[in-house]
What we know:
By secondary structure, the protein is α+β, with helices and mostly antiparallel strands.
Amino acid sequence: MDRSWISNPDRISTEYVAGVNQFLQIARETVDATGCTLCPCKNCINRVRRHIGEIKRHLLHQGFLSTYTVWVEHGEVDYSEEPAHGSFADKMEEAFHDATRDHYFDIGSTSDMLSPEQPADSERYDNLFEQLKTPLYDGYDETISALTFVVKLMHLKVLNKWTDRSFDMLIKLLHEVLPPGNRCPDSYYCTRKMLCDVGLGYEQIDVCKYDCSLFYGEYSTDQDCHVCGTSRYIRKKIPHKRLRYFPITPRLKRLYSSKSTATLMRWHKEGRVVEPGVLRHPADGEAWQNFDSLNEQFASDPRSIRLGLASDGFNPFGNMSTTYSMWPVVLIPYNLPPWKIAAKTNYLLSLLIPGPKSPTKDFDVFMRPLIDELKVLWNVGTDCFDAHEGKRFKLFASVIWTVSDFPAYAYLSGWSTQGKLACTLCLEDTRHMSIRGKQCYMGHRCFLETEHPWRNRKDFDGTVEVRPPPRRFESSHILAQLDAISPRQPGKAPSNLSRKRKRLSYELNWLKKSILFELPYWSSLKLRHNLDVMHIEKNVCDNIVGTLMDIEGKTKDTLKARMDLKDLDYRHELHLDLDGKTKPFASYTFTKEECRAFGEYIKAVKLPDGFGSNIGRCVTENYKLSGMKTHDCHILLQKLLPAGIISFLTEPVRETLIEFCQFFEKLCARTLRVDELREMQRCIILILCKLEKIYPPAFFTIMVHLCVHLPEQAILGGPVQYRWMYGTERNTARPDGSIAEAYVIDEALTFLSRYMTKIETRFNRTERNWDHSVTLQKQANPSTVTEDLYSLAVGPEERYVSREACVVNGIRFRSTVHDGLRTQCSGISNLAQHDGIDHMFYGVILEVMEVVFIMGRKVLVFRCQWFKSLPNSNSRFDQYNMTSINIKSSWYEDQSYILATQARQVFYLPNLQRGDNWKIIQNISHRHLYDIPVSTVDDIDENTVDDNDDDDEILPPLQPNTTLVGPSSLVRHDIAPIHFPDQFFVELNIPGPNLPRNDHSFEEEEENDDDDDDDDDDEVDEVQCDDYTDSDGNENEDSVHMDDDDIS
């Protein structure tokens, strides 16, 4: 319908008057009981309800809101994908209109930079609209106001990472050079203050010095803590601590106030294609479906929001020596499609828990305001406007699970993640074993079937396994245990006697009853807390690589580990020799020559552009690996390690490690299948049992044991990409107030950037590898089809353009000649036919050709070299579910051309076992492509959906070999044993063969720890979680702090 009359300046013209009458006819259908509806004139902008006659007068005298071309406030539905055309000022007007349409919407600014006496919302928004209509300076273009100028300038600062100081200098310069009387802010402070009115603000809540309570609610006016009696202030109204709380209700309502997100918030119900047994989204998991079946009224409205709660501690001072731990609590909306869930712009910061120390068991104290708001959102809901339907509705929300690393798991769940019963799923049935100075978690044979032959073998740990698998504890059983726990007074005050109390035997590892159980639905959830695959994967990688390369501080094959074997009286081949000073060389450890070869292999690896970092930088001078980040371990464990150890180690050890790596590769796929996950559950038990035959008990930390639960959690929660910590880990910023202020500004810019055109924003910013020409071809208007066909019919020009590289669907391809020094972008595969049978061809790009047609049409073509890859031939070798090909053997030289859109990227790794001419093929799945079936919803972003069936990375099934390693295979007899002098034992304080061993039971350690009270008023004794490595590769630093009474 033509609505160009809206922008007609002649308001008495026949066209304009007819258009107004047409609008009024539609608007009459939306009048309320008083005969009023929203007025879309330029002054009321759909914020004031008026009678029809008064609306007509406003429209004729003041004009129609120029951006209001789809009358969603008056019953129309916006089906358009493309943003409406208009000036930048019009877009900002529309943005403010969306933000202020709901008078329940804003809580008002409460940030530090603004005065306590804030104007009312209506006055504040009137000021915003006045600034929007006032030009930057008198006589300048009215479409560029001071507010639009500031918004654009702040976007440049955010996207280009300008420092605050450089921006302040720039804004002062602009204020000076612009004509006198200009309205440009003269400082960064004034700029932020202007934008704060667009944001949603936050609340500041004072905290007791000892984390006993919040000065919140009925205690908000108290001068002393109602728990411990400590003064609220240090001096002169300066509190000891201050919690920043970002109310989530207005932020959830904002998701529906914008047309760009309101439709996407229904995707989980209306856009998701359901395939039985296939998991692509959290909504496909059993936990989500079980929640819907138990709460039918909540689930009946697709707009009801399901949230994930994530938290992780970090040091805001980066790598400085200052010890400081701050804990943000982030909410993740899961209603969105997969490619939007992963976008940090949709994360909602709800709490910023201050440091300098971790909250530990007092985490619930800080969660109180969030829990109170979540209970209201579940029981009562909140009035909200849906920009998609143009109607008001009652919005409800719920938290369906938490996402955290393992130490934070204890804070959120209430179950201690240390000690004998550290497993949060096995609970009291955790299989554990006390060894020298620590606990290990072996005995995975109990997960096998009752009649499995491995249960009767004594060469695992010297015993026959008769124990049943750990029970699956129902909610009723857990609640009964929690109700039996003795009440604990929160806080770390010296007068708090329960601070260091010893847990009773029936309390098991329970520290508290989590505040999350106050949510009415929490006890009925099938998956309350997620195990973080990211940190588990890193710790497993550190265990394996550290032991393989004998890295100090990482290896699990220490002298104590060998002494453990002697104490347990099994695996005698690995015991220290009779003199106790010589350690036989184990078969699961590299020699110095093998370490060097493996280090050179890692340094020579080239990964595709954007797939991973340069892991070769982690190889030290003595050919050890150091400084690997979480994603480095992710790539190393799944891709590089299986190919790198083919020529090393003994066959049973090598095979078991490769199976363990491939388990994680299949688990981290974006598309999971329930039948495969159930098979993986059986396979991981076999793999862990085989590892128990290889490694000493010290290898089996709690992180290794948790692998046995990962397939089951994937069945419940769906793909791990939406339940791990990559999105929320290490939000580096400045402490406390600075982070809060930055978040409020960033929140405002994020909302406004959805409406900005002709300027780069975080929403229209292209990916690192994105080709604009390809994008334009994909979005070509159907009216150009005839020209396309004509161009093809005429044929290409005789000449073509040879290019070094190109980007297709966000993936960078290069020819072999132009491959980078540290990247490999020339490897490709293509599914075609050989002898009438589908066959996957592998090769490299020799040349990137741009074929030019008339009318400006261009087609990218790859000239390739195809490697002969027939199965069971001399040019192909399949081993351990990995395919190696001979790159000196080529075929199909006369059919070397394919379209660029037909290519799928792969990369090649050296096969150290078969020589330089052999390469191992590694298929990859790029992080911005998703295997999502095409649906009827119009809001799917074609740049992120992988609609090519050939591009789905189909991994071979995981089929562990049931052959166990024999005793003779555990020791390298061709390598001389390692001898240690007596002084070595003395320096490390390790009982040697002739030194007395101070061996006491774990229970005695526990009792001593509990009785060791801390008399310091300002500090609490803290001990880090054993065998835990954070995402930056630091053991027991920064992210893990547990009180002494957490040890059980």
